[in-house]
Specification:
Strand order of the largest sheet: 5-1-6
Largest sheet: 3 strands, antiparallel
Shape: globular
Number of helices: 16
Distance between the termini: 41 Å
Strand content: 5-15%
């Protein structure tokens, strides 16, 4: 069996400049110490020590939890020198954060092995760069705004839009800006008189403050049925394709943009809507979400006018004619690729073409939405293509990317985020697994040590 020994980093390093600089200096010393050692291999994202259990040191220090190996047994030859040296150098840079342990002394690490294995798995792919929102976050990796639970926005008049939400501070991508339960929920009833009566009954059950919040919301459809007009102007669906709409005292003040910087999502567990930043939002910038259903500008304008009663003058709809034409072409291409990818017969007969379409769709989405692409569903499509044909390795990677996308736009506590996380950990649990064995590959066969371009070529099956 052998005895494990090594050290844990407690507390783990932050993404701040101080910890980052110390880790880079630490890694530089280790590289120089072993630059001529054939058993220490420089990989694209980490150092691998080819002794014992092949312990790793990542180049991104915030991911690191443990450096250890079995130091006894048939495969432990030479590893103790590496463990001792790395530990000694780590103590120079990180002092008491280096918590040494050895099973020979009846000691165990601070972190459980599942946490350690998860951290090691994250070494393979570098994180996307993050822009710090405060000096404290840049230097120390802490976020005083979040720690103090300060509101990230204020309600202000917005020219030509009425009221809106405006950022008080810089807001990082993936930040939860707001979550809110609905004042009321209601289906879209016909005739409209029945809907008006239904809403009136629900309003009577609210407190006076809540009633005033409802009545203060904008109504783009004034007339005989004012309550229905408020709902039609403001309601957000309680889930994808839901026929039930919710009215929210604050979230309903968020205005529309065809290039939004935030995303709204219904959480079926908490019965509330969450708002997450999908772009970096600067202090003083309006927070926006999308009300439209996609498509070119004329389709979007018609939908927005019919459903919400306004003409859109956002940054996309206000583009010069040629640029708007190019944007419309991309959005039509997005619709076409999305429909093509969803063809189940094509997924079975021409999976390589479907996967290539997913990659094309991702590129068009990134171009059109400036890095804030709604990519979670695309990664799920790529996952389904791979798992349908038995490729658990690629399926797990796509599920992992879909999981990260959903964390950004929905949060860790979203039921949909957790479903995708489960598929990342156990891709074979998907109902389509076993439909075909054309690409049969075990989950553990994700290649290691590839650079970013090589990994992408493998993932998207290019050159096959």
């Amino acid at each position: 069996m052998g005895v494990d020994a090594g050290f844990d980093m407690v507390p783990r390093l932050s993404k701040g400049a101080v910890d980052k600089q110390n880790w880079q200096s630490f890694i530089k010393v280790i590289k120089e110490r072993y630059q001529n050692d054939e058993l220490v291999e420089l990989k694209p994202n980490y150092l691998e020590f080819k002794a014992g259990e092949h312990p790793l040191l990542p180049f991104e220090g915030h991911k690191f939890l443990r450096f250890s190996s079995k130091i006894s047994g048939s495969q432990a030859k030479g590893v103790m020198e590496y463990v001792d040296t790395v530990t000694t150098v780590a103590r120079v840079y990180f002092g008491s954060r280096v918590r040494c342990w050895s099973e020979a002394a009846d000691e165990s690490g601070f972190y459980n092995w599942q946490e350690v294995f998860t951290s090691i798995k994250s070494y393979e792919q570098p994180d996307e760069p993050e822009i710090p929102t405060t000096i404290a976050q840049f230097v120390f990796g802490t976020d005083p705004i979040r720690d103090l639970d300060l509101p990230l926005f204020e309600v202000l008049p917005v020219p030509e839009k009425g009221r809106g939400l405006v950022a008080r501070f810089d807001i990082a991508r993936g930040t939860r800006i707001l979550y809110e339960n609905p004042l009321i929920t209601t289906p879209h009833l016909s005739p409209i008189g029945q809907m008006e009566s239904n809403i009136a009954t629900k309003l009577k059950l609210l407190s006076k403050t809540q009633q005033r919040q409802f009545l203060s919301l904008h109504n783009n459809f004034p007339g005989k049925h004012p309550f229905s007009g408020v709902v039609k102007t403001n309601a957000l669906p309680c889930g994808p394709n839901s026929l039930i709409g919710g009215i929210y005292p604050t979230i309903c003040l968020i205005n529309h943009s065809c290039l939004p910087n935030a995303h709204n999502s219904w959480n079926s567990d908490t019965r509330c809507v969450t708002i997450h930043a999908i772009h970096y939002i600067h202090a003083g910038e309006e927070i926006t979400i999308s009300y439209d259903k996609g498509g070119p500008s004329d389709t979007r304008q018609t939908h927005l006018k019919d459903a919400f009663g306004f003409d859109c003058n956002c940054s996309v709809c206000s583009l010069p004619p040629l640029e708007l034409q190019n944007s419309d072409a991309r959005r039509l291409q997005i619709q076409h690729l999305d429909q093509t990818i969803g063809d189940p017969n094509r997924v079975m007969s021409r999976p390589d073409d479907c996967l290539a379409d997913c990659r094309s769709l991702l590129q068009v989405l990134e171009e059109e939405f400036h890095g804030g692409a709604p990519s979670a569903r695309l990664y799920y499509d790529a996952f389904q293509i791979c798992i349908t044909h038995g490729d658990q390795a690629r399926a797990s990677v796509f599920a992992g990317r879909g999981y990260k996308s959903r964390v950004i736009c929905e949060g860790e506590d979203s039921p949909e985020t957790q479903k995708v996380k489960n598929l990342m950990e156990n891709p074979a649990s998907h109902r389509n697994f076993g439909a075909s064995t054309r690409w049969r590959t075990a989950k553990g066969l994700v290649p290691k040590g590839l650079n970013a371009d090589e990994f992408e070529r493998w993932l998207w099956r290019q050159g096959r």
